Amino acid sequence: MTKAHLFLGLLLCMPLIVRGEGTAERFQAANKAYENGDFAQAAKAYEALLSDGFESAGLHYNLGNACFRQGELGRAILQYEKALLLQPGDASILHNLEFARQRTVDKFEEVPDFFLRAWWHRLRNLAASGVWSFTGAFLWLAGFCALALWQLSRERRTRKASFFAGLALLLLSILPLSLALSRTAWEQHSGQAIISAGTASLRSAPDEAGTELYLLHEGTKLELLEKLGDWHKVQLPNGEEGWLPDGAFEEI
Predict the structure, then answer these.
(1) Most C-beta atoms within 10 A of its C-beta, which of 17, 83, 91, 148?
(2) How far apart, in whole angstroms, are the C-alpha atoms of residue 190 and residue 171?
(3) How does pLDDT run across 74-105, given as a tens digit for each residue?
(4) How far apart are alpha carbons 148 and 19 in whole angstroms?
(5) How far is 226 from 232, CA to CA, in rounded Å?
(6) What is the pLDDT of residues 187-216, one digit of tens each?
(7) Spatial contact of 186 and 251, defined as CB atoms under 8 Å apart
(8) SS3 32
(9) Distance CA 93, CA 119 (A)
(10) DSSP 8-state code for residue 20
């Protein structure tokens, strides 16, 4: 099976968690439009659900698939990135995202990140913020119970074991709780964006008169650094920086 065929095999519909009356019916209608090859109607229906406040990894994933089938590469990558933000590590999302990235025009060699920062980000992205929060809370509660046993027990061996176990669990809970805070902040503002459509001129200054450094194409991923008026300073994957106007990209 070729990679293209494998990708098409993954253009399936993920389930949507129903959070309102009629939502499931609207989602299924959008899926039906997709299955019938009416990708524009499917995308419109998925976007309407998002506009009404319904959000899930599956909804962004399906919208990404509909955009891809219409040739809207930048919008597809944007939606896959949003899906991955909500459901980190999902194999189907990662596969489709990588497949779409391979079709982008701009190819930048990424600058290696500082190893500790890269390690922290990889660890943070292993799970959603809720998973890290639950893990941290569970370890903290287990540590609290162990220390309570240390206070209540009269047996020396039990007191010693419960004290050190409780202390270790409380210290261990710091890691997932810190990851939960980091992940929550990243989910709320990833600081990343995608050139979602057409092209955009990356300029040396926050002005149309600035020198054009690159002509960026849809699908290119950016790091948002700062904002000055209607312009944003961004960083490319290769570490180079420049300025883009509002509307040239969409934040993940």
Answers:
(1) 83
(2) 28
(3) 999 999 999 998 888 899 999 999 999 999 99
(4) 40
(5) 6
(6) 877 889 999 888 999 999 999 999 999 999
(7) no
(8) helix
(9) 22
(10) S
What does pTM read for this prediction? Answer: 0.76
Looking at this protein, which amino acid is placed at residue 223? E
Residue 4 vs residues 1, 195, 205: alpha-carbon distances, Å: 8, 24, 40
Strand partners, 199: 217
Of 119, 57, 63, 122, residue with least CA distance to 90: 57
Checking phi first, is residue 234 left (phi over 0); if not, alpha (psi -120 to 50) or beta? beta
**In terms of DSSP bridges, do strands 212-217 and 221-228 run parallel, antiparallel, or are they unpaired?**
unpaired
Question: Which distant-in-sequence residues (6+ apart) come within 8 Å of 77 by Cβ?
Answer: 64, 97, 100, 101, 104, 194, 196, 218, 219, 221
Look-up: residue for tokens 């050139």? 195
Which stretches of the chain are DSSP H helices? 3-9, 23-35, 39-51, 57-69, 73-86, 91-101, 115-124, 129-152, 156-188
Report residue 193 as tokens: 């964006």
CA triple 247-37-50, angle to 5 deg: 40
d(CA 248, CA 202): 10
Return d(Cα 51, Cα 96) in angstroms, integer.
24
- Token readout for 197 is 């459509």
Task: State how far the Cα of 226 lies from the Cα of 44, in Å rounded to an integer.
Answer: 32
Question: What is the 8-class DSSP label of residue 240?
Answer: -
Amino acid at 121: H
Q: Residue 183 corresponds to which amino acid?
A: R
Sheet with 199-203, side-by-side order of all strands: 212-217, 199-203, 241-245, 231-235, 221-228, 192-194, 250-251
C-alpha 68/C-alpha 91 separation (Å) is 18
